[in-house]
Design goal:
The chain contains four helices and three strands. With 135 residues, it is of the alpha+beta class. The structure holds zinc ion.
């Protein structure tokens, strides 16, 4: 059976995935760059968006065995790509992380985004929610 992309083979592979999901999420008119870097935070990736320019940059954290293990769900590069792209659609408001209330809002937004990303992957590949269990 066709399965989601677990890891990108190279940059070209990541851009193919990006292009497909940009189309699916009506983001084809955005200019989006992808990079693989060492991010000092415990997250798989992060995105910087410039809504006025319709541009964004997705930084994937370099995948180490520790990084792969620290994921709360099974590591899936395609799901992470979808998650980051959904942030473009959902996060119109920029949160000021110095305030506790806004931190909470950002977290809530992130959780919604994560479940939507998983749902889209499930639908594309006809997967059960259990597929995401970190085994
Ligand atoms: Zn997020």
């Amino acid at each position: 059976m066709n399965e989601p992309i677990i890891e990108f083979k190279d940059e070209k592979h990541a851009y193919e995935c990006l292009e497909e999901w940009q189309r699916r999420l009506y983001l084809s008119d955005w200019i989006i760059r992808v990079s693989f870097e060492k991010i000092d935070k415990d997250r798989a990736a992060e995105i910087y968006t410039e809504h006025s320019q319709k541009s964004a940059k997705i930084r994937f954290n370099i995948l180490t065995p520790e990084r792969k293990e620290s994921e709360p769900v099974r590591y899936c590069a395609e799901k992470i790509m979808v998650h980051e792209l959904l942030h473009i659609l959902f996060d119109i408001v920029r949160y000021d992380q110095s305030s506790l209330a806004e931190n909470e809002l950002e977290l809530a937004q992130h959780i919604k985004t994560e479940f939507m990303a998983r749902s889209l992957i499930m639908v594309k590949y006809d997967l059960d929610p259990d597929w995401f269990k970190n085994i």
